[in-house]
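Following up on my earlier thread - several people asked me to post the actual chain instead of describing it. Fair enough. Here it is, all 199 residues.
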Amino acid sequence: MTAQPALAIEPARARPELEGRILEQCLAGNSVAMQAFVRHYQRMVFAFLARLLGPGAAVEDLAQEVFARALRALPRFDSNGRARLSTWLLTIASRLAIDEQRRARRASVNDSTVCDVDSAHESPEQTQHRRELAQAIARAVAALSHDQRESFVLAEIHGLTMDELASVTRVPVGTAKARLSRAREQLREILGPLWEELQ
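Reply from S.P.:
Thanks for posting it. Predicted structure:
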C-alpha cells in the first residue's frame, strides 16, 4: 500500500481534554462548570459541524443541541474508558449532522479553513492562488458522499486516529480506513493536477 499524501489541510488545533474536576462539578450540576465545559469544546464542535454542513444558522442550532445532549448524557460518559471526551462530543455532533443532512439534503464545506498556508509573506498572486486552491478543495470535499466527507474531515482536519474515526462513525476500523481511502481517491480524481500541490 502506497503512502497517502499529506494534504495541506489546516488541522483543528489540538486542545487538552477538560480537567476531571470540572467534569465532576458538571455532574454535580454546577452551572459555572457546565459553562466552562461548553466554552472548552465549542470551537471544535462548531468547526466540525460547519465543515460538514456549511456555515449557517443550522450549525449554531445543532451545536447547542450537541451540548444539551452531552450535558444530559454526561453521567453515562466513562472518563476511564477508551474514548476521549472530545471524540465522544464529535460522535454526538456526527449523529446530529447526519440527521440534519437527511432533512436538508445540503452538502457544503467551509472553505475558509481548508488550506493551511502562511499568508504573511505572500504576493497578491500567491494569495489569490491559495484562495482558489482552497475553494477547489472545498468544492471537491463537498462532492464526496456524506460517509467519505465525514471520514475525511475527522481524519485530516480533526486528526482522529483510525480507532477514533471508527468509533465516531460507528463502523469497523476496516470500513473507516476504506471510506477514508475512497475519499482520498475521489479527491485525487476531482482535483486532478491540483492534487500534486497538496502533497
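Residues 31-53 form the longest helix (23 residues). That should answer part of your original question.
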